[in-house]
Design brief:
heterodimer; A: mainly alpha; MetI-like fold; 2 domains; 15 helices; 73% helix; globular; B: mainly alpha
């Protein structure tokens, strides 16, 4: 589903001339267009405004920010970015975030395909009950406290392994995979098996390429969730060397928070990779988030 | 049916168990860190568990619940937090639902630049609470911040997140961050409405508000219901923006933040009262369940009315 990017807009603008319209209908239409744009610009200002002010702030010196918190910067200087980068351990934080996100997402997706496939096909007994178990999870109480006790007693508190362990599940992701696999014809399994293809090889080299769209969707939403996670990073990690970028940013705010331009630069540095990623992957992001909502 | 669902890969003893073997890691982790801990919350809520390794855990019955809801000044704060959670839910749900719907109607028209607007409204959803929160914290800085100087143009004054209305400013940020998600679900619903319905109505001379009321709104029932439920359940459980924007101040928080703060020593006393916090999280869970069920019943009745 591509909700944002449907390209039919320009095709439709020419059709009005075909219809015969009286003046009042035309006037009403113009009025509606003007009102729509007025409202859109109003809404948009809430979104563009804070972003622009953040960008402007990141280019100002602290005294300039206090003198002029909203306007354009007097000169263009990236000093805040370089200084923020050097002041905090941002390269380390970014590397940690990358490690957590890639390792946990890869493990989760591979394990999940092997869970989703037999459930979707009924190759294991009680497949229906297993699926229900994943759906029900969306309505259970939060696992936060017993999870903490578990990690603590496993001796995994404040370790990379312990933190990654927390991200090896995602019921919505699994449900997306099951639903997609159901749309792959079963005859494929049969003919592959007939040709002597083994179970693991079938899943790995035939099924996975076929369900790439679903895998992309699940990968993207799972990875975004890990990348943005703040609470678990606050609960489970106490060592600055292990912090992901979100936690690092909050630490940076705690220490340099009164230097607003530097904080603005740091926030932008964390935000830009996500914005770039969104531009390229918005189809998968949106389909993942909405299918989770609609089916869950 | 049995023949159809039989696994036909390979024939040996091992091959027959392969689907199970390969499924076990994923399922095992799911039990270990998902379902298991979720259910264990009930168990911890009747113990005096702390967050310190090695201290024995004692069964103390329903003392945690009693203390949380009925004992002393702290329980009055907790009941206030419960009430505040409900206010948060009502305000966030109604405003976010309305804003998301208006946005969706606007960007569903054949207007130039609508894709830019859609993207713009949706982007905050993927940024995460750290970025969302810090961005607004800077924007709302009291005493000479950007919003403060904008307020100044109109002769207004506010302490924003440091003042008595901090709670409402968090609501503003919460809606700002998530309205795009509501919009996208409405938009997906609108794109499934057949265009000929509108064409037929337009031939009959209907336009504007009439079209919305008689076609869009009833046809949108599934999306309306999804958004209604998601907004309710989501806002009851939301608290992370409070962490970034205001921090924990006793007596100003929603229930979800109380659970976290009590469990992880953020209340100012630095003791990890995890049994107590587990009880609080069950209270929140029951609240979500009851309100969610009521909302679901309402939604089902609506569905019968419109989709019949």
């Amino acid at each position: 589903m591509s909700v944002i990017s449907d390209p039919d807009i320009d095709a439709d603008t020419g059709t009005e001339t075909a219809a015969v319209q009286d003046d009042s209908a035309k006037r009403r239409r113009t009025l509606r267009k003007v009102t729509s744009y007025g409202l859109l610009v109003l809404f948009a200002s809430f979104y563009v405004g804070p972003l622009l002010i953040l960008i402007f702030a990141s280019l100002k010196s602290l005294p300039e920010f206090f003198r002029n918190p909203t306007g354009l910067p007097e000169s263009f200087s990236l000093d805040n970015f370089t200084e923020a980068w050097e002041l905090a351990n941002f390269p380390g934080y970014l590397l940690n975030s990358l490690i957590y996100t890639t390792v946990a997402t890869t493990l989760f997706v591979i394990m999940s395909v092997f869970v989703a496939f037999p459930i979707a096909r009924g190759y294991v007994k009680g497949a229906g009950a297993l699926l229900t178990l994943y759906v029900v999870a969306l309505f259970l109480p939060p696992a936060l406290i017993p999870q903490f006790q578990l990690i603590l007693n496993l001796g995994l508190f404040n370790t990379r392994q312990g933190y990654i362990l927390l991200f090896l599940i995602n019921p919505i992701g699994l449900i997306i995979l099951v639903n997609y696999i159901k749309s792959i014809p079963r005859e494929l399994d049969e003919s592959a098996a007939m040709d002597g293809c083994g179970y693991v090889r079938f899943v790995w080299s035939i099924l996975i390429p076929l369900i790439r769209p679903a895998i992309a969707t699940v990968t993207v939403i799972h990875a975004i969730g890990i990348w943005n996670e703040l609470i678990l990073a606050t609960v489970y990690l106490t060592d600055d060397d292990l912090y992901p970028i979100t936690r690092g940013l909050i630490v940076f705010e705690g220490v340099y928070g009164s230097d607003w331009p530097k904080l603005a630069a740091a926030v932008l540095m964390l935000m830009l990779p996500m914005l770039v990623l969104f531009m390229f992957l918005q189809r998968y992001i949106i389909s993942g988030l909405t299918s989770g909502a609609v089916k869950g | 049916m049995a023949a159809k669902t039989r696994n036909m890969f390979g024939g040996g003893q091992l091959a027959r168990w392969l689907p199970w073997l390969m499924l076990l890691p994923g399922l095992g982790f799911y039990f270990l860190i998902g379902v298991g801990p979720s259910l264990a919350t009930f168990f911890y809520s009747i113990t005096d568990a702390t967050g310190i390794r090695g201290i024995p855990i004692n069964w103390i019955g329903f003392d945690n619940y009693d203390e949380f809801l009925f004992q002393g000044a702290r329980s009055r704060d907790n009941v206030d937090a419960l009430r505040r959670t409900l206010v948060f839910m009502v305000l966030v749900t109604t405003i976010q639902f309305t804003v998301g719907l208006v946005m969706a109607v606007l960007v569903n028209q054949k207007l130039r630049g609508r894709l830019v607007f859609r993207t713009l409204f949706f982007v905050p959803v993927i940024l995460g609470v750290a970025v969302q929160g810090l961005m607004w914290k800077l924007f709302l800085r009291p005493g000479g911040g950007p919003m403060d100087s904008i307020f100044g143009w109109f002769g207004l004054e506010s302490q924003f997140l440091a003042g008595p209305n901090a709670f409402y400013w968090v609501i503003v940020v919460q809606i700002w961050a998530n309205a795009g998600f509501t919009m996208i679900i409405f938009l997906a619903g609108m794109q499934t409405i057949p265009a000929d319905l509108y064409e037929a109505a337009a031939v009959d001379g209907a336009s504007g508000w009439k079209l919305f009321k008689n076609i869009t709104w009833p046809q949108l029932t599934p999306a309306v219901n999804t958004n209604f439920l998601l907004n309710i359940v989501g806002s009851l459980q939301a608290w992370m923006l409070f962490l970034v924007l205001t921090g924990y101040k006793n007596g100003t928080q929603v229930l979800g933040y109380v659970v976290y703060a009590e469990a992880f020593g953020q209340t100012g006393t630095s003791s990890f009262r995890q049994g107590y916090a587990a009880a609080a999280s069950i209270v929140l869970f029951v609240l979500v369940l009851l309100i969610g069920m009521a909302a679901n019943a309402f939604v089902n009745r609506r569905e019968r009315k419109y989709m019949a």
